[in-house]
């Protein structure tokens, strides 16, 4: 059986604050010193049969803190942050859900892309003098470089904003290849942009200190400040489920379109669940994947990839086979929000762009 010893009780006085909160520690039979043997697991006794001392035994449970979205939201309010905009991220989903459920609609805007979020936040500050929060996944950092440097920078219009960034691909954490590349580069990217940052702790006192530092900097420099959010920082928060009033889901819409295609048609799928569901449906139908390009990263650019293919292959027109099926789906504003980009887009239909089909 393996147990854990909290760092502050492992009596490893030489450990720095940069090391993990929980460390492995044991007293070796051949030595009276406590030795760090790894980052996480600690045997209840060492291989030689030596038992832990009594004062170590009472601290062998793993206590994992999670930051409650409500607590962090209220802390943001205490530092004057009352407007939120950005692109939802899986690491921030619980906080974003709380913001969506508890913020007036005029003070929360889900943006089309991260650059637009920075622009929205800038407009809010120009109108109110208050500091907004922009939330995004680190994969969207590239989209905010231009507005940060040419709009919000102190040398230009000097606009303070708190940038909350989900740190996908954090070094040492298992993730998808595109996230690992972005995760490794994230701290250096922020440094090269001249944006100071801290990692958000998973407990309220620590989070308050980070917000206090961010607030002091933004007030003094009138410039952006970033907060990186690791995986599983926030406690769970879910928006109460609404009754589904619609006939179709994103997945069923994808299946309807795929079922209407010819064997020669190729498909460009967008980032996220749509491409995953497209892949799974191809497996289920034994179609193979040779005709699909799944845009696993580069969020928001599937339409441009598809246009690049179409532009280089003028002899392969965009398929119109899906139009009849799509028109059977009720495309009200509520549906578009509900499906969040799930309806398949053909060029003639100016709805959300997720899959482009070429014959």
TrEMBL record:
Keywords assigned: Decarboxylase, Lyase, Pyruvate
One GO MF term: thiamine pyrophosphate binding
Pfam families: TPP_enzyme_N
Residues of the Thiamine pyrophosphate enzyme N-terminal TPP-binding domain: 74-179
Entry-linked CDD domains: TPP_PYR_POX_like
Keyword Lyase part of the UniProt annotation: yes
Lineage top rank: taxon: Eukaryota
Protein name, UniProt field: Phosphonopyruvate decarboxylase, variant
Native source organism of the sequence: Sphaeroforma arctica JP610
Taxonomic lineage from the root: Eukaryota, Ichthyosporea, Ichthyophonida, Sphaeroforma
């Amino acid at each position: 059986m393996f147990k854990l010893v909290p760092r502050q009780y492992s009596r490893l006085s030489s450990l720095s604050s940069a090391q993990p909160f929980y460390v492995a520690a044991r007293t070796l039979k051949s030595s009276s010193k406590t030795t760090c043997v790894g980052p996480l697991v600690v045997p209840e006794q060492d291989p030689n049969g030596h038992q832990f001392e009594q004062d170590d035994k009472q601290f062998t449970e793993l206590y994992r803190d999670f930051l409650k979205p409500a607590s962090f939201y209220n802390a943001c309010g205490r530092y004057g942050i009352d407007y939120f905009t950005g692109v939802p991220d899986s690491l921030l989903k619980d906080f974003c859900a709380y913001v969506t459920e508890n913020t007036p609609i005029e003070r929360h805007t889900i943006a089309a892309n991260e650059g637009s979020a920075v622009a929205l936040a800038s407009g809010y500050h120009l109108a109110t003098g208050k500091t907004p929060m922009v939330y995004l996944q680190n994969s969207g950092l590239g989209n905010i470089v231009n507005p940060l440097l040419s709009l919000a920078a102190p040398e230009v219009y000097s606009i303070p904003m708190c940038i909350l960034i989900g740190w996908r691909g954090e070094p040492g954490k298992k993730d998808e290849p595109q996230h690992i590349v972005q995760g490794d580069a994230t701290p250096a990217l922020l440094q090269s942009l001249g944006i100071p940052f801290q990692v958000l702790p998973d407990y309220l006192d620590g989070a308050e200190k980070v917000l206090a530092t961010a607030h002091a900097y933004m007030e003094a420099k009138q410039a952006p400040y970033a907060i990186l959010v690791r995986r599983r920082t926030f406690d769970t928060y879910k928006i109460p489920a609404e009754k589904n009033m619609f006939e179709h889901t994103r997945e069923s819409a994808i299946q309807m379109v795929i079922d209407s295609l010819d064997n020669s048609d190729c498909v460009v799928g967008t980032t996220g669940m749509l491409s995953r569901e497209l892949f799974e449906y191809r497996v289920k139908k034994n179609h193979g994947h040779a005709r699909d390009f799944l845009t696993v990263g580069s969020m928001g650019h599937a339409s441009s990839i598809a246009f690049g293919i179409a532009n280089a292959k003028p002899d392969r027109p965009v398929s119109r086979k899906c139009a009849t099926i799509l028109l059977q789906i009720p495309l009200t504003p509520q549906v578009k929000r509900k499906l969040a980009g799930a309806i398949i887009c053909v060029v003639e239909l100016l709805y959300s762009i997720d899959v482009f089909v070429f014959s």
